[in-house]
Amino acid sequence: MSISDLRGIAPGWSRHITVPGTAATSPVTWHVLDNIADLGGPARGTLLAVHGNPTWSYLWRELLTAGAGAGWRVVAVDQLGMGWSQRDGRMRRLADRVSELGALTDHLGLGGPVVTVGHDWGGVVSLGWATRHPDLLAGVVLTNTAIHHDHEASTIPALLRLAGHPVIHRWATRSTRTFLRATLALAQRPLPEEVTGAYLAPYAKARDRHAIADFVADIPADPRHPSHDALTTIAAGTAALTVPALLLWGPRDPVFAERYLRDLRARLPQADVHRFEGAGHLLPEDADVAGTVVRWLAERLPATSTGPTETGTGAPTRHTAAGNNAAADGSADAAPPRLRRLTAVLDERGQDAEPAVLALSRAGTETVTWQELATRVRHLALGLADLGVRPGQRVSLLITPGVDLTTALFACLRLGAVAVLADQGLGLRGMSRALRGAGPQWLIGVDRALTGARLLGWPGRRVATGHTTPRHRALGARTGLADLIARGAGIEQHGGTLPAEPDPEDDAAILFTSGSTGPAKGVTYTHRRLAAMRDALATTYDLGPGSAFVVGFAPFALIGTALGSAAITPDMDVVAPATLTAAALADAVAASDATAVFTSPAALTNVLRTAADLTETHRSALAGVELFLSAGAPIAPELLAQVGRIMPNASAHTPYGMTEVLPLTDIDLTGLHAAAEDEAAGVTGAGGGSCVGHPVPGALARIIPLDDDGAATGDATTAPGITGEVLVTAAHLKRTYDQLWATQAAGADHAGWHRTGDVGHLDARGRLWIEGRLAHIIRTAGGVVTPVAIEHAAQQIRGVQRAAAVGVGPAGTQHVVVVLETDPQIDRHAGAAPALATPGLTRVVRQAVRARCGLTVAAVLRVPELPTDVRHNAKVDRARLAQWAERALAGGRIQAP
């Protein structure tokens, strides 16, 4: 079998090139894969791709195909002694490999621009070439590699330590294919047999694996190693590179841990970063590395230099930029307004003796006044600065909402440190993934968080809440918030002052999405954008100094302070909204005569469930509420109306938005009734989903129409009645996704706007209606179907608490299946094992959906409880349900989804 017969290798790629020797060296023959014959014209540049150990250039086969399609020549080398290159038995050190790669490119006459691409130890070799060829270098791409090791051997990756152990080194790396097979087994999905065979092909005999053993032996574990100086030189040279860089990472890598990515980010601060959650060491086999590299090249090294198209009309312009968003009016040139920082409220109210934060619990009520809060924040900021926290550093805040969290957040904002907020609502696994991805330098946490950090290896030097105890020190906390506040007070007493305020465009916080539609994403906000979020809430709901509101939903736990309002946390688990009881809500309202309540549908559902426990005193307190908001997930108008009877004098609102931009639209109960009337009257675009109202001041919404395959394509529009992906912008829109360059780029084809992933439409009155998620649309033989209207029809049936509509079958021929959660007070089967719905219930659901949506329901299933996300306890996981329904209807055992 020839090399070209291997899966994925095109005819004409494989070449052998002999580089003449010199007075000191012999000629050597390299094997390369080169796509130059596929280009059909001049190349835009060359990608010089270098594999690691124990792979070969086959690793880059998809990059050769994608590169040719984009006009880039790709030269993927087999390092000498590896793959199909010459084997001469010579032990090559790192410096040798860099020099010999340079001799090869000189012989090829490789001209610029050149972008190096490296994986594993090929990353180090490619960087060595890059630092020696600055005149040719145009960019650097790295995937799961390392260019720095501490001097302790224990810091060498465990797999490499094991392979390098004198007892097993020769056996594992050369005598057998153990090391080779162990590396291939690191792929997160088993490699196809023919792909595994292709990787093994060059290494059939022990003599073929000499360089595999040598590569492991050449890892510089300490300063005495022969390759240590070369590695140190390359590491230093990398830090001097100023060309565009792209770091692509598989977090599930037992070889190169997150600390190596953090080191690369520190050396290449200009780098774009994308972490492929779920991917591991063999990143090009686990993720779309080739497609991401090509998109990045088009963005950072475009064929022309015309620059991005800008807009000045408020209408989105299609555009490939993945950088900062434009102003809310669509104009990238609009001068930013003067910023009133979030911390300004502490200067404005810093002499007030009125309560600023109240936290209720079974142990009592913790209260801090505005004067006390301003002093605590100032002293903590001084203490943190003295500890070593610097502007731009990331600080993970794993603190229960209340006084300590508010103090720590505002101290970080004042210092210019970036607050990382990943709450328990993500679940333990989600929190671990989020924190490792964000890579904070500091972690401030309650005891439970410190325990998690110790057991799960969360990054960051640790700080406890309160005063430091022996237990805290055992968990790795070097000091505590109370100690730092005391230290800051002493510093201030001796004339110490805080550094200058951070720049408005500096990053201020990283907030995490709920993870209800995939791994939670870090969303980066600047100081200006956070301030705009505060202003949008203040304007929309007339909140500010003098008001007080109860927070039953974690994302809003800090909004009160920013608005200058008193913020009250009820006796509940704020990151588990369904734990809020009616009595706890009333107690929190009474604690400070609160006039507003911020919470979620799950919390309100439990409030209704426990309303019978309310006393007359409770009801009297709730009668003083003037505004309540339900946010975080859709809520039925009927539920909103029922809650309104508990707070009879409150205006009931349900804002729509997401972590990337909140709030975006708003509607109250009166508006929901008006929307229902318009739907019945046939107003264009009214109906077919959940009405979420008009955009809030400063926000804009557009629709990208769906094509016949359900993809959002074409030009954005405001025409009523057209279903598509919802496109939004506002001054409080995120800056970017954190370390998710490809995700940001995928949604940045409209400059300054955010593709929400939600599907909906506008009506003739300019209101937005949400029909579901783009990922949840159903592709039937009759066309694209969205789920929300179907679910609404089913939920009108007596005894149905919640419904989810999913598609079963191949895309293009899917059938609509409805999954129900029924009311135990009406349906005696509620809570029982999952099953097909009774014939009577199935018939009624089919009739309701046909009457309202004109669609045929193929099957109706009933489950004890629909699966939801952790944070909101309300967003139904339709993707999980679809997979479950497909298995259940295929004749398998029907188990809980």
Describe the structure.
The chain is an alpha/beta fold and 897 residues long. Among the domains are: 3-151 and 225-300, Alpha/Beta hydrolase fold, catalytic domain (Rossmann fold, 3-Layer(aba) Sandwich), CATH 3.40.50; 668-730 and 750-775, Luciferase, domain 3 (Roll), CATH 2.30.38.10; 778-889, ANL, C-terminal domain (GMP Synthetase, Chain A, domain 3), CATH 3.30.300. Helix content is 33%, strand content 21%. The strands form six sheets. It has an eight-stranded mixed beta sheet with strand order 1-2-4-3-5-6-7-8, with helices on both faces. An eight-stranded mixed beta sheet has the order 15-14-13-11-12-16-17-28, sandwiched between helices. The protein has a seven-stranded mixed beta sheet with strand order 10-9-19-18-20-21-22. α14 (370-387) packs across α15 (403-415) and α14 packs across α19 (481-493). The protein is globular. It starts with 13 loop residues before the first strand and ends in an 8-residue tail after the last helix. Residues 305-333 have low confidence and may be disordered.
Q: What is the overall shape? A: globular
Largest sheet: 8 strands, mixed
What proportion of the residues form beta strands (DSSP E)? 15-25%
Which strand order spans the largest sheet, edge to edge or round the barrel? 1-2-4-3-5-6-7-8
Radius of gyration over all CA atoms, rounded: 30 Å
The beta-strand count equals 36
CATH level-3 fold name of the domain at 3-151 and 225-300 = Rossmann fold
- CATH architectural category of the domain at 3-151 and 225-300: 3-Layer(aba) Sandwich
CATH superfamily of the domain at 3-151 and 225-300: Alpha/Beta hydrolase fold, catalytic domain
- Low-pLDDT segments, ≥5 res: 305-333
| Sheet/helix structural class | alpha/beta
Kindly report how far apart the N and C termini lie: 47 Å
Question: Mean of the pLDDT scores?
Answer: 89
Per DSSP, the total helix count is: 30
Helix content: 25-40%
**CATH class placement of the domain at 3-151 and 225-300:** Alpha Beta
